[in-house]
Amino acid sequence: MTEQWVALEPGTDPSERVRALRRAHDRFTAAGTVARPVRPVVAASWRRSAGAHVSPDASASVEMPEGDVGSYRAEHPLARVMPLFRELMGTFAADGEHLLAVCDAHGRLLWVEGHSRTRQAAGRMNFVPGARWSESAMGTNAPGTAVAVDRPVQVFAAEHFIRKVQPWTCAAAPVHDPRTGRLLGAIDITGGDRLAHPHSLAFDQAVARAAETQLALLAPPRTTEPALRLTALGRDEALLLTPDGHKLRLSRRHSELLVLLAGHPEGLTGDELLCFLYEDESVTPVTLRAELARLRRVLGPDVLRSRPYRLSTPVDSDLTTVERRLASGAVTAAASAYSGPLLPTSQAPAVARIRHRLADELRAALIARGDPDLLADWVHAPWGEDDLDAWRALAAIRPTPPVLSRLAALDDELRTPGPYAT
């Protein structure tokens, strides 16, 4: 086969190919071996699916209720090109009894639109907004595989890893942020065997490229008033982006002050800031006032107000982004925005409390979600490599030798008394 990303070559009998693929799928699920005519991209996806312990009889999980999906996708970058998707693919989907679907970079469906009867049929296998269709959850499927390999791909009939999905055929193409190259998600067309044609994959890819072009032409989203943007996760010294585009690297103390003031838009008194910032009770108000005076010179005289101390300009931050997404149940999006502990070397009591609370809430959400990819990302990050509970949760759903080995090592460390143990 000359093009492994296209499901059927011209002249191929679809019915015969379906029968051959079903035999190959049965052989793979029984013995783990891949037989012809399975394409290399599908064979690799089957192996990843099996490695993630996906059952061929699994069902999709709806992770987010409808209300939470709405709030999550409203702030997703692909929301800005949904009118384009509908214009280019909506009529094609409705007239052809297909579905137009859009997923995020983690394979979660954000929009599923198209022919009403087809949508009802897809709903019976939870191909609905808020459901996770990543390879690690649902095995080989076009949107999940497209984001996994970052390539346009078709998945035809019994190429799907999960049996209840095998009556369907789909084609998906990834969409990237044109400025950063970051994967945003994928645009998918799902329906019957008629989609197993090179033109459907080319069409899907053309729509994805058109979306990237439009994103490049669109101005950044406008806000009702200028805001400061603070980046403080995973950094000892925060970065501040001003409305005019300047980046300021803040000192550690100024980073702590901005985190606290941003979290208290109503303002804080000098006594409250002293308590929040300093473990040493002997620190005087004069020291604090000097720090605030220096911060005022950095920010400008009209930004930092006093009596009480407060910011006159709204501040958004990566901290609030994670908090907001956790509150809405968007655990995957929260994990993607979490680049590390808040000001990790800060000794300020209030900052330390926020740091531990955020990490604990995200960690608990990841364990409750039970997604092996998200848990693997957590435990392989510097802040999660010794997290015994997270390793146990990962081992329960992905008991690979490296995972079990690391879990055993952590258990041994906990059982081994230290040099000063009595």
Automatic annotation (TrEMBL):
<keyword id="KW-0804">Transcription</keyword>
<keyword id="KW-0238">DNA-binding</keyword>
<protein>
    <submittedName>
        <fullName>GAF domain-containing protein</fullName>
    </submittedName>
</protein>
<dbReference type="InterPro" id="IPR003018">
    <property type="entry name" value="GAF"/>
</dbReference>
<feature type="domain" description="OmpR/PhoB-type">
    <location>
        <begin position="245"/>
        <end position="311"/>
    </location>
</feature>
<dbReference type="Pfam" id="PF01590">
    <property type="entry name" value="GAF"/>
</dbReference>
<keyword id="KW-0805">Transcription regulation</keyword>
<dbReference type="InterPro" id="IPR029016">
    <property type="entry name" value="GAF-like_dom_sf"/>
</dbReference>
<dbReference type="InterPro" id="IPR036388">
    <property type="entry name" value="WH-like_DNA-bd_sf"/>
</dbReference>
<dbReference type="InterPro" id="IPR001867">
    <property type="entry name" value="OmpR/PhoB-type_DNA-bd"/>
</dbReference>
